[in-house]
Amino acid sequence: MSDQASLPEQAHLSGNNAIETLRDDLPDDEILYDLAELFRVFGDSTRIKILYALFESELCVGDIAQVLHMSQSSVSHQLRVLKASKLVKFRREGKAVFYSLDDDHVRSMIALGMEHVEE
Amino acid sequence: MSDQASLPEQAHLSGNNAIETLRDDLPDDEILYDLAELFRVFGDSTRIKILYALFESELCVGDIAQVLHMSQSSVSHQLRVLKASKLVKFRREGKAVFYSLDDDHVRSMIALGMEHVEE
DNA sequence: TTATCACATGAACAATTATTCATATGAAGG
DNA sequence: CCTTCATATGAATAATTGTTCATGTGATAA
């Protein structure tokens, strides 16, 4: 976290305290951390697959596991993460728990990401 | 990666091969991996801060380090990651290297993420 | 060339994390 | 009650990754 030994302190920015101004214009650290955390949740193949599987309809945990060829435990663990970030919601129906995308924000995010990936 | 010992195979999905159909509708694994990887790049506080710092104007490495109170080495390492994902571009001017956002995709992504974070 | 500045990079370490295995919870039916 | 099915969760392990430190590269100026 501390600066390295000898920074030349030679700013290329025009103006004297341009660096401080720029720093003060950044959102609070807490907000930036939450933002990074949100992206981190999307940043895992398994979770992305789960979200994609839920694109068209809600699914229960076992079905997600079968669709993705994954263990029930692993899926459940990741659903927990997705739940914590409010990316999915769920409802109970007997023994089964059905998960679905929480809102259209999720679709928008993935769609935007896809645009970049597909160049 | 292999399935767990004894899945009951009791699909809740209507229809017999609904599971296979859903699986086949998913994008290729490679694409989903790339998508996750893109989000993973956004999923780090340092890189998010760097991108934010570049929102208004291009900056050289040393200035970014000063704005974010980080070591030059750490910034450089992360710029490498951002470069590899085509989120930033750069140009050389004498000894300094100036980085800037590659396109408006980056702004859109961050803006969308912010909407979710700010509830 | 030699010295210095700005940046890049390799290695090592610490911290985070996704999966597996085993077990616990909770609902429905007998 | 007891059993079974569906899901959740805790612990342990392996793999990934961000930072630091030290050093390398490339450009400018004397």
What is the ordering of alpha helices and beta strands of chain A?
Answer: HHHEHHEEH
Oligomer: homodimer
Beta content of chain A:
5-15%
The number of helices of chain A is 6
Instruction: Profile the largest sheet of chain A.
Output: 3 strands, antiparallel
Keywords, separated by commas or semicolons:
homodimer, 119 residues, mainly alpha, three-stranded antiparallel sheet, 3 strands, 55% helix, DNA-binding
Quick summary:
The first copy, chain A, is mainly alpha-helical and 119 residues long.
Q: Explain this structure to me?
A:
Chain A is mostly helical. Chain A has six helices and three strands, in the order αααβααββα. The first copy, chain A, has helices at about 20-25, 30-40, 45-55, 60-70, 70-85, 105-115, and strands spanning about 60, 90-95, 95-100. A three-stranded antiparallel beta sheet of chain A has the order 1-3-2. In chain A, α4 (about 60-70) packs across α5. Chain A is elongated, with a radius of gyration of 21 Å. Chain A starts with 17 loop residues before the first helix and ends with a helix. In chain A, about 30% of the residues are buried. The model of chain A is unreliable at about 1-10 (pLDDT under 50). At the A-B interface, α1, α2, α3, β1 and α4 of A face α1, α2, α3, β1 and α4 of B.
